[in-house]
Amino acid sequence: MKNRSKITSSRISAPLVSCDGKNGSRRSFSVSTDIVDFTGGRNQYVSRINSELKKLGMESTITSSNSNESEDGDTKPLDHSIEIVLATKENTRNVGWFISNGNDAIDRKIGIPLCGEVSEEGDFAEADWKDEPLCRQSKIKWRDDTEIAWLERQVELTQGFILMGDSPGLVVLGEPTHDREDLSETERHFPDTSRLKGYIFPARCGIIIKKGSWHNFPVSVGPDITFLRLNAREAVDALMGMKEIGPIDFRDCYKVQISDKFQNITLRYPDPRPIAKALGLLPDDSISTQNRKKCEGTTRVEVKKWGGNRSSNVWVVPIINVEAFNPDDYGPSIQPHLNKTQPEVANSGWRDYGNRRGLRRLGNLFSKHNIACTAVVSSDLVRDDLVMDQLHRLKREEDWEIGAHGANNSSGGHAGLSAKEEETTIADCIRHIETAFGCNNNLTWLTPGFSVTNSTSKLLLEAGVTTLLDFVDDDEPFRLTNEDQASDQSMVCLPYSMETNDFSLILTRNLSPREYAAAVESHILELAKESRESGSPTVVCLGMHTFVAGTPAVVHELDKMLARLSHASNISWATAEQVSNAVNDKTFGEATPTINSALHSSSSSDFGVQGAIPRLKCQSMSCEQNNIISIPARPSSFQSNRNNIGLILIDLQQDFMSPEGYGQELGNDPSKLRHIIQAIEAVLNSARSAGLMIIHTRESHRSNLADLSVLKASNCPSIGVDVGKGRMMVRGEWGSKFIPELAPLDDGSETVIDKPGKSSFYQTDLELVLQNAQVDTLIVCGVTTEVCVHSTVRDAADRGIKCIVLEDCTASYFDEFHEVGIKMISAQNGIFGSVSDSRYVIDALSRLGNKN
């Protein structure tokens, strides 16, 4: 058996250290230990280290361990792949302090200022450590081996890594275990594999590692990286006090070789390059190179034109993962600390619940919205009658496509298999699926756990797979063809989007069900906008797991999301097979009908593709449904009937927007507000076309100032003063007139509210006007963000009126006030309202058309 403990050559530089010799004397010496490729396992390495220590007159506490190889050499650890995520301040809180690009210094509470210089193999004894840590520079190149061979931790020390240059990097980090009450004393000395993640750090970002967190060192995600390694003063003090050198176990520093502790698994992380590309951290050519390399025996062919008369649509493909898990094996966890208990009930029960209840719930959800899905199924489930009955019904009655998803999601997938073993595994899985559901000319495949090998794509192509979901790159499909010129085999690859995957968003990023649905909705709407503007179709696969998306709270939010999206003009819901057929037929006529089609045709010829399964259920839309508007916003998108929506423009008058007005008299610069005029004008025109109620407000007072309070008069003595163009803040004067670009229509059809205070509701009849018009939602534009806009939105919230504030249509004389004001509105799950952008409102209103 090939020894799995081989690691690449590197160098550990040890500082000048004081230690105890045999005679008890204190002496200093410098040691540099080369860690080289070795095939003898940990025992030979430990023996060599012990030998070196004896030469120095020292005893070692490092001991040998039993080899994890069996006597016949056949034992083969299973691969356990950890998840990769984009590092953020929020998701690294449990393992350290995130350092973002542009930070000038690290938080003083951490106690680690940055060095002014970089020293290689710095000498602790001679360095001046008053305020600065040791800072070393390392350069790392890409390597194909994604095995996690070593992990280390320091309970009393702190380390940090900062990426230099323009390349991102990956660091494996795990939550501390030393203080975990749910672990045994022995288990606290080792990492918890269920709480390990690979974090991709953008260029010029880094992390200060929390004490006790498990970690390795940064590795490349494609391009070479250079990083700084930081040690705190406390680390220096501890190293100076070391009594012996031991690169694996000494004092507070503990470094464990994974193959010694976990003899039955090999820890790996997925290839980070496609994920880094999907996050926009790598250039396009990086992913192209990766695809060619990862798809040995195949050639990538770009799709130039496809989609027929749906070529300006986003094609949305719901992918329902119906997965088998061995009851007591590793897998996604709702209670990670119970992974090793026997019998394991919480996690296996949660996953099993998904297939029994979650699948049914998702089936009912998509049936309600007349959407056919692609279910990718673990072949081990063909023995589960309850799951099979549900899938057969969905295929028969709801036109679901059934694809293959390997054998199960517990055994490590394809990683580590030889080409022959993988070929057999694929053939067995396809045979079971086709036997259970009938042979098809088309077959969709998703490799379990992204455990692809260099041979996977070619083997799947040769096995007859026509649609592949193994790649996350792009928002467009591409083909893989056989390099064998004599073969005309090809398969269409669809982007299995990580940005919309329920596992990534809910379990990894800890989004609430509402936040998850909002993120998916925004993703789809943005792609719809891009496709409409470019005239080129895009694709997004919605990866959903029965035990995640199939839970009641998530289904509840997805139901509302699908209702909102049902009225989009260029969203085509499709199965993976239908998209593949569309790509393969350049004369493709009609795509899978969108939900908002006035009538779904029952003729398959409308689709122009042999094998495409149209949705046959007829659904006509009422006039009331045609009036629904859906707007992406934060913290969550919302929908409403246009008859219940009004546009309010707050205080867009000369006194605030122009020189010589009241704002300038107070010492402000009116030009800082005028950049919003163009965006508001576009929103106003769209609202007029859509027939929305339009309300203009202006802050002004009676000519005799009878409505000016004593307090306001005291604080604002300029009110009523004539500055040459008229009296400031007085009705009928120049300053109270609306700026020409945003003035009400002359026909009197738009409501004007004169208000004596900051809020548009204070001492006005605005609430009565809205009630009479049955308006319960306001799109808010105007100035200034932190004063009159905020006052109006807060008052509206107290009256049960929903507000959506357009960030690019509001402004302040002070940028920082605007920023904080906007954040406050959507904070705490939208305590005062929602925040959006003019482009989303214009897009939503344009889909409604003119109101008759």
Automatic annotation (TrEMBL):
Gene3D superfamilies: Glycoside hydrolase/deacetylase, Isochorismatase-like, Ureidoglycolate hydrolase. GO terms for biological process: purine nucleobase metabolic process. It catalyses: (S)-ureidoglycolate = urea + glyoxylate. It comes from the Eukaryota. Keywords: Lyase, Purine metabolism. Pfam families: Isochorismatase, Ureidogly_lyase. SUPFAM superfamilies: Glycoside hydrolase/deacetylase, Isochorismatase-like hydrolases, RmlC-like cupins. Belongs to the isochorismatase family. Homodimer. This is Isochorismatase-like domain-containing protein. It comes from Cyclotella cryptica.
